[in-house]
Amino acid sequence: MEIVGEERIEAPREAVWAALNDTEVLKSCVPGCQSLEWTSPTELLAKIKLKLGVLSVGLTVEIALSNIRAPEHYTIDAEGKGGIAGFGKASADIMLVEDGDATILHYRTGAEIGGRVAQMGSRFIGSAAQKLAARFFSHLNKVVQEKVGGA
Fold first, then answer.
1. Taking burial as the number of CB atoms within 10 A of a residue's CB, which of 26, 99, 103, 118 is the most buried?
2. What does the pLDDT look like over 9-34, one tens digit per residue?
3. Cα separation of 114 and 88, whole Å?
4. Which CATH number fits domain 2-147: 3.30.1330.60, 3.10.100.10, 3.20.20.70, 3.30.530.20?
5. What kind and span of H or E run contains 103?
6. φ, ψ for residue 71 (rounded to 5)?
7. The pTM is what?
8. H or E stretch including 98?
9. Is 4 exposed, middle or buried (0-12, 13-18, 19+ CB in 10 A)?
10. Going by C-beta distance under 8 Å and a sequence separation of 6 or more, which residues neighbour residue 14?
11. Other C-beta atoms within 10 Å of 132: how many?
């Protein structure tokens, strides 16, 4: 499954980049995120609890950043394990493009799931993933604008 989109953020690119690398900001934006911490300069560990339909899933997620070109681009690779609920692997390319005083955040994600979560059906999972992505980027937009005094 692939999700492609963009979010216009009324803030300078450097402010958006800083937010994308701030664990407190990210923790507040990731639905169900209970903890998020750096384990190295390019790796993070997260604990996330999501409700997908009738299934509640607790995931331990290892995240690695690569292809880093600050403040314009990076690739995020994540692998989550949820015990009997299943697993998920995702990759996202994030690109920040200056647009006057604003920033256009472009994203392209791909994901693979397995286990009980996958049995729920790809259409349901695809819809849930799109909603989670939209919620993340919308909340990030709000947080960044509040930090730079634009909201």
1. 103
2. 999 999 999 999 999 999 999 989 99
3. 6
4. 3.30.530.20
5. strand 102-114
6. -100, 40
7. 0.85
8. strand 87-99
9. exposed
10. 71
11. 16
